[in-house]
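Example 9 (inverse folding). The structure is encoded as follows.
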């Protein structure tokens, strides 16, 4: 998985084990909990991709339909929900559409 961590594109996460491995590395990780059918999620897609390319944070995407236990475990009740992890701990939660500037500001506080 270490080669993926150097990607400037969002990492697609499937399953709790993969998710836990990703956030436990001590890095700053922005996780986009989304759904394919969600219009606001589709609006966020290019913003999330830009964050992956423009910041030092690792960016991951979790499809809530394919990963319901994972979404439930992190209290994701609506999409899009973005969680920011730093040092393995959730430090920020953003619900709904965020501007690129808002998201960059939050990520750069930790990354």
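The amino acid assigned to each position is listed next.
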């Amino acid at each position: 998985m270490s080669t993926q961590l150097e990607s400037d594109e969002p990492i697609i996460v499937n399953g709790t084990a993969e998710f836990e491995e990703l956030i436990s590395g001590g890095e700053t990780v922005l996780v986009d909990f989304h759904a394919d059918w969600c219009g606001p999620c589709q609006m966020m897609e290019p913003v999330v991709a830009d964050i992956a390319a423009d910041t030092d944070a690792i960016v991951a995407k979790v499809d809530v339909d394919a990963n319901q236990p994972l979404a439930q475990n992190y209290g994701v009740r609506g999409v899009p929900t973005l969680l920011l992890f730093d040092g393995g701990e959730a430090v920020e939660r953003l619900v709904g559409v965020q501007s690129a500037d808002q998201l960059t500001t939050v990520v750069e506080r930790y990354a």
